[in-house]
Amino acid sequence: MCDPHDQHEHEPTTATDPVMAASAHVTAPTYVPPAGLARDSPAKTAALDWIAEHTDRITGLNSEIWEHAELSLREWKSSLAEAAFLEQAGFQVEFGTAGFPTAFTATFSHGTGGPVLGFSGEYDALPGLSQHSGVGHHDPREYVHDPFAPGYGPGHGCGHCALGTAAAAAAAAVAQAAQRHQLPVTVRFFGSTAEENLIGKTYAVSQGVYDGLGAFLDWHPSTSNATGWRSSTAMTAVTFTFLGVAGHGGHALGNKSALDAAVMMATLSEFLREENLAPSGRLH
């Protein structure tokens, strides 16, 4: 039986866990949160006014992306709709961020020497969550007539239609306020593909897409309004395909079992997780 007094010897520390090390200063007794950062200003009022004046366009964009409900890496219409919204607000749009056709970077610059502000937008849907808008019960828009795997079409269960739309509206509002009040700033909106597959931002980070930002704002739809700070491990998804030759166990020549390879990889992954990962690491 483990002695409770020895429990601290087995707990991760800031020396071995990067996540704990990154968040250690937040919980320190000496930490004093900054105040007065959200005070009212003419520019802030101008940004909020712009959002109020364009409510129909903003909610219309959200509804359009909801209807498209496009899966990761296939957000063709959704990304074009979001890019067009930002072009109308004075942004310069360039598609192909980090090599992905449905990812784009929209940039607005006013003056020189100001901060570089980044906004993150996502617009990919999830499989099997097709749903008519404004309906509080299960009411799919699309049924997949597959005799072997029947189901429903894609839908925005995570609210990425609202995520990308609100982020684009916020970026546009900041840009318009800066222009109206002659404030130097560069605003960059990153249309991120395949968030649900955990690959869009992974490649963007590896290629330095977010380098040079003074601040980067991201958010996610939820059941309540709140702010917070936390850190997490970086994530990436990898697909492995095992190819083999079917055969019978009584005939050893030519047999190359793909199933054996998959089973061996699963087993070795378990050992890797148990013995060779830092406390902060995850392998699913």
- Sheet with the most strands? 5 strands, mixed
The coarse silhouette is: globular
* Total DSSP helices: 7
Overall average residue pLDDT: 88
Structural class: alpha/beta
**In what range is the share of β-strand residues?**
5-15%
Secondary-structure element series = HHHHEEEEEHEHEH
Helix content: 25-40%
What multimeric state do the chains show? single chain
* Sequence of strands across the biggest β-sheet: 1-2-6-3-7
Which regions have little confidence, pLDDT < 50, spanning 5+ residues? 6-10
Q: What's the structural blueprint in terms of helices and strands?
A:
Elements: H1 18-23, H2 42-53, H3 55-68, H4 76-88, E1 92-95, E2 104-110, E3 116-122, E4 143-144, E5 151-152, H5 160-180, E6 185-192, H6 200-206, E7 215-217, H7 258-276
Parallel strand pairs: 3-6, 3-7
Antiparallel strand pairs: 1-2, 2-6, 4-5
Helix pairs in contact: 2-5, 3-4, 3-5
Written overview of the protein:
By secondary structure, this protein is α/β, with parallel strands linked by helices. The chain is built from seven helices and seven strands. It has helices spanning 18-23, 42-53, 55-68, 76-88, 160-180, 200-206, 258-276, and strands spanning 92-95, 104-110, 116-122, 143-144, 151-152, 185-192, 215-217. Strands 1-2-6-3-7 form a five-stranded mixed β-sheet, with helices on one face. Helix 2 (42-53) crosses helix 5 and helix 3 packs antiparallel against helix 4 (76-88). The protein is globular and about 80 Å long. The model is unreliable at 6-10 (pLDDT under 50).
